[in-house]
């Protein structure tokens, strides 16, 4: 109450009613070490209902993670360690950035999947519960989390995967911003989760007709959830939001705003506290809470012994664990990357699939799959088993609980949040695929990946009208620049097969941000000079230079439109116009290059420029300047063979050449001819 009152804004109600549950979890139930928040053997805690950030911050303070009472006083203030919603990498002990509701549940599911995959990589033969890689994922969620559609996607998949290392505590307080949730929520949540295949335990602190915080009943439920190893567990906890505030408990007013000084004082009187004192934490209370460090040390010592025994017995796996934990790549791994013969025609989605299969033996940490589009996305590593309980394996996809190929089903948004959870857990590196147009379904998760700087890779295929007959509903037009607008996301659209392999190399060498590969369905020609990862890593480079070495026109292109630029160059050179073709697979990488390099690629003295991309022009003006032209697509596509679409929509070499001449004319280079009187 004091923290929100001091900030003037915030969410006090849930933090008040969930305080006993959070304290119980941190003090008695969860395996963690406040002196080492990144300890590999720790359980993970996800506060999916990030608006109640105080639920987490107060436990981090009480447990000794480094937060002080002054930090709680600085809730929601500039440069504080207690921002309005928990932020991963900003505050020690915060496992993931939460706030957009439902995302945290998806992160928790991803963490549970990653924990199982990690166990399979490093200690697959250990008896259940005996491995140093056995740990639990705990997640708190609110009514809002449960209502968001993403919760269905990830919870259904968690049940299907039988993630017995996952517990979701659902705070059933029946209040949201619009007050009583009956206005919009009437489903039986317990029945819903039972239908998913979850183990469901209900704890009702209102069952006697009076509100009784039965912590012992909740403790038994949490322990029962840990004991259930074949199914994820939903603990449905019935609470009263804002209890024991005498006037605002159980109302929407206490959900997302300060109580006001009168209600704070009244609540303190109910609790037997002095209403005149704020942020009062008696030393004896803090000393008692900090005893959790002693419990943690005992658990840590037991784990350390188990871990050391494992290391001694498995030196090869231990070395691999150390490498992967450091997100380091093995020596010589790039030699496994495939090469493609110039002159051949290969779809970049196929080239990407070949890269993944080639890397499978040398990068065991790399794993992923698709949202039911494996054959289209080429995301299945050849010969690798699926990650699936054995009873659900199929003829097409045999597998086991420790497998490598992920199957998300038609759940793009859920896939995005799960990929984030896998990356946050550590120990492995995920990728996930769908069509580029369906990146819209993933966008909130992609944005959070960029915000958290997570090394997640998106394999987005069918990247333009080039997918053809499926028509405008499946043809991305605005998506490339929409995605480039997300700070911290690398959008990579390779020109050919070799550029695709090089792009994968560059992406995997980055550990501090997500990347999206936008790949073609249709075959594209393979060029000389695109296999140089050093050039590709710069984001833009000279693919074919002007015959004189001094271009009058520069054509910039990405992906499948590079071939149009190359064709236009041939037409222009035949007319005596020296023309340079620049392949720019990644705008973000190019922008990070120093000015000198950018000038060698795009000489400031050359004002006649054309950019060509089968999508909207938004953003290309930065590179072509006021005299430049953009050959683009400013409308939706149509259903027809892709060659017909490119021709009918003016995405041709001839159109690009004409745009180059128009740009030249705009610079004053079109002087005409003397024709006489």
List keywords for this structure.
39% helix; elongated; five-stranded parallel sheet; alpha/beta; 677 residues; single chain
Summarize the structure in words:
The chain has 677 residues and is α/β, with parallel strands linked by helices. 39% of the residues lie in helices and 13% in strands. α17 (439-452) links the parallel β13 and β14 (457-461). α2 packs parallel to α3 (53-63), α5 (103-122) packs across α16 (412-425) and α16 (412-425) runs parallel beside α17. It starts with a helix and ends in an 11-residue tail after the last helix. The mean pLDDT is 97.
- Name the overall outline: elongated
Cross-sheet strand order for the largest sheet:
12-9-13-14-16-15
Q: How many strands?
A: 22
Low-pLDDT stretches are none
What share of residues is helical?
A: 25-40%
